[in-house]
């Protein structure tokens, strides 16, 4: 039997991976063989920890994840990962249950888990959009605060208008990036039109 390689993921930097890593070690994965992604959603396919875990597994090894939704949040992504592992001769363990694509029941169970993971991700997106719409309608969601106060913006526009200051000098004087300087100037130009 090959090695056990573990993978765990959480969507935000504020979440803790302890429970997932404890599940993985309880399933026999050694701590130094667990790869982690923190602050990355399952719909984001660019996950360094997952890439490292997939690179670490060899034919005969088993990739162990606590739950399928930690591995993928869409049916197509779950299928691609599952099919790729099978083609490489790598087994997939979902919380201790081995996924066997040759077994119709195992395949159905895997697909159902993938559907539920995608459904859960879609529900989360929908609730977030609804909550933001309600907050926006109540005036509680106004976006990010500007980097410069209205007074600072007016001074930046005035100084730029004199022709004595370059964009780089304005960036340094106001401690902002190039995009912020141009955004302030563009807003001022739009207001005078």
Topology overview:
Layout: E1 4-10, H1 18-26, E2 34-38, H2 48-56, E3 62-65, H3 68-71, H4 75-87, E4 91-94, E5 97-99, H5 104-137, H6 150-162, H7 167-174, H8 178-192
Parallel strand pairs: 1-2, 1-3, 3-4
Antiparallel strand pairs: 4-5
Would you give an account of this structure?
It is built from eight helices and five strands, in the order βαβαβααββαααα. It has 193 residues and is of the alpha/beta class. Helix 1 links the parallel strand 1 (4-10) and strand 2. Helix 6 (150-162) crosses helix 8 (178-192) and helix 7 packs across helix 8 (178-192). The longest helix is centred in the middle third of the chain and has 34 residues, at 104-137. The chain starts with a strand and ends with a helix.
């Amino acid at each position: 039997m090959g090695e056990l390689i573990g993978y765990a993921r959480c969507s935000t930097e504020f979440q803790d991976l302890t429970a997932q890593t404890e599940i993985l070690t309880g399933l026999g994965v050694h701590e130094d063989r667990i790869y982690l992604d923190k602050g990355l959603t399952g719909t984001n396919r660019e996950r360094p920890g997952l890439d490292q875990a997939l690179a670490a597994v060899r034919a005969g090894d088993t990739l162990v994840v606590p739950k399928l939704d930690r591995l993928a949040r869409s049916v197509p992504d779950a299928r691609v990962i599952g099919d790729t592992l099978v083609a490489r001769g790598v087994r997939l363990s979902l919380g201790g249950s081995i996924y066997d694509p040759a077994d119709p029941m195992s395949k159905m169970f895997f697909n159902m888990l993938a559907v539920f993971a995608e459904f859960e991700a879609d529900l989360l997106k929908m609730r977030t959009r609804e909550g933001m719409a309600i907050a926006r309608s109540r005036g509680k969601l106004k976006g990010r605060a500007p980097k410069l106060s209205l007074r600072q913006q007016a001074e930046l526009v005035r100084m730029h208008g004199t022709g004595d200051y370059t964009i780089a000098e304005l960036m340094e004087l106001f401690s902002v990036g190039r995009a912020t300087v141009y955004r302030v100037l563009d807003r001022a130009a739009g207001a005078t039109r």
